Amino acid sequence: MIxxxxxxxxxxxxxxxxxxxxxxxITETNPFFEILVDYVLVxxxxxxxxxxxxxxxxxxxxNAKNCVxxxxxxxxxxxxxxxxxxxxxxxEFNIPIxxxxxxxxxxxxxxxxxxxxxxxxxxxxxxxK
Length: 129
Prior knowledge:
Blueprint: E1 2-5, H1 11-19, E2 23-25, E3 39-43, H2 52-58, H3 63-66, E4 67-74, H4 84-93, E5 97-102, H5 107-127
Parallel strand pairs: 1-2, 1-3, 3-4, 4-5
Helix pairs in contact: 1-5
């Protein structure tokens, strides 16, 4: 499973790098590319203007359809606004949130996230049997 991520402050990029999984970055200059395989989207929490490239990406081709899960980074001190970008994307595109973490996550977060991704891979594999 690959990861597709958007990172403004570097926390999400660092988290993705720490997983050791193949990852592709959504950039502000080119969010209009298509991913033709199942993937997990990893996003930070910022206002809608700052995260517009994520929405552009998901609205390109079959990107929303091929996204099997979302992970959100945020600051738990923001209570209900914690990972609100991931929550908004999940609701709009009907994609489950599979994991959340603060900032760039801990070693334990990385391990737990990788387990969740593994479960998705097994689930998808069993779906085609």
